[in-house]
Amino acid sequence: MRNYSDEVSTKVNRNEVFAGRIFIGLLLALALVIQFVVIPGMASSYAHRYPEVAHLEVPYSTASIAAIVAFELALLSAWMVASTTGHDASDRRWVNAATAAWFSMLLIVAGICVHAGAIANVGGPAMLFGLVLSCGLGIAALVLRPQVLQMLHDRRGSSTGGSDESSTPVRSGD
């Protein structure tokens, strides 16, 4: 039989997963708005305002949208990681997919920053900041990935620990 505290712990985890899903959903909706409304509108506006760099409208818009798509794939992979129960090997695949999508996005953003700052000579110090930020987020992903895998491993171990988990919970004082 499970203890009542196990059920409370499970409910806290379910609430945290639900809150995480809401946050991921909001980020996904925001990314879609940025992808379909903000980037094309800003690119067109800047192309009209600065005709000397109008030739960069299409390549930078395309690369920015590709980075947003990679971010959306990372979000969907994170959603799947949050949805896993810790029982199968697909957890690691979803973490790998999220990491690959994250690094794809960072490489695209770093490429845009390098091209804009060093080759096209536009953007100024903001391009250096974008490059440094991309590198920092890549390092953070490398540091956090093993911790996520360990968390999933621990969840797998704790979810298979009880022999009779299908029984109803019993309160300690009953």
UniProtKB/TrEMBL annotation:
<feature type="region of interest" description="Disordered">
    <location>
        <begin position="155"/>
        <end position="174"/>
    </location>
</feature>
<keyword id="KW-0472">Membrane</keyword>
<protein>
    <recommendedName>
        <fullName>DUF2975 domain-containing protein</fullName>
    </recommendedName>
</protein>
<keyword id="KW-1133">Transmembrane helix</keyword>
<keyword id="KW-0812">Transmembrane</keyword>
<feature type="transmembrane region" description="Helical">
    <location>
        <begin position="126"/>
        <end position="144"/>
    </location>
</feature>
<feature type="transmembrane region" description="Helical">
    <location>
        <begin position="94"/>
        <end position="120"/>
    </location>
</feature>
<feature type="transmembrane region" description="Helical">
    <location>
        <begin position="21"/>
        <end position="43"/>
    </location>
</feature>
<feature type="transmembrane region" description="Helical">
    <location>
        <begin position="63"/>
        <end position="82"/>
    </location>
</feature>
